[in-house]
Amino acid sequence: MRLFIAINIPKKERDRIYRAARPLREEGFPVRWVSSDLFHLTLKFLGDVRPQKVPLIETVVEGICEGTGNFPMEIRGFGAFPTIRRPRIIWVGVDPSPALRCLKQDVEWTLSEHGFERETRAFHPHFTLGRAISDDGAGAFRGLDALSAQLSCRAEAKVWKVDLMESHLSSSGPRYETISSFPFKAPPGR
Predict the structure, then answer these.
(1) pLDDT value of position 25
(2) Which has the closest alpha carbon to 162: 4, 7, 40, 54?
(3) 189 — pLDDT class (breaks 50, 70, 90)
(4) Which DSSP helix (H) or strand (E) runs through 2?
(5) Does the active-site annotation cover 124?
(6) Of 37, 68, 98, 136, which cross-links 184 as Cys (Cβ 3.0–4.6 Å)?
(7) From the candidates 40, 114, 124, 168, which is the catalytic residue?
(8) What is the per-residue pLDDT across 110-147, written as a single tens digit (0 to 9) for each?
């Protein structure tokens, strides 16, 4: 099973992001754009996991969520990895608030105690909008930097749970399935 832990946001906010990114899609960049139904914020990619480990993951994540309270998540700004001039991923960003960073850290550290490799790269929370399908260099993305700087996307979503997700890959693109959901149980702001 190819698993990850994610924050999913309401359809209304996913649609708002999709509408804000419309000029990017219309520009004709060599990008495979992601359907708004697939927008999510990955907290932790677990990779290929044996089904027997799912109950352990569920227990660990549930424990984290028992001590976590609801918090607002601010969505804003467009960008790309590794750079806007030679992107592999085009995204809309999320403010790395203290609550979001703490949740990410709790997930990383607690799962590392159970044999999952800890992520060492800096946390750059985002929703993936598209993936480059061309390695033609910066010329293929001429104007992306200026266009993304002109666009505005500001939204806020309340985070009240995390989901254990399974990714099903195919030639027509990924499909994501929620395995389990874990609502936060602590008072807001914890």
Answers:
(1) 95
(2) 7
(3) low
(4) strand 2-7
(5) no
(6) 68
(7) 40
(8) 999 999 999 988 999 999 999 998 766 668 899 999 99
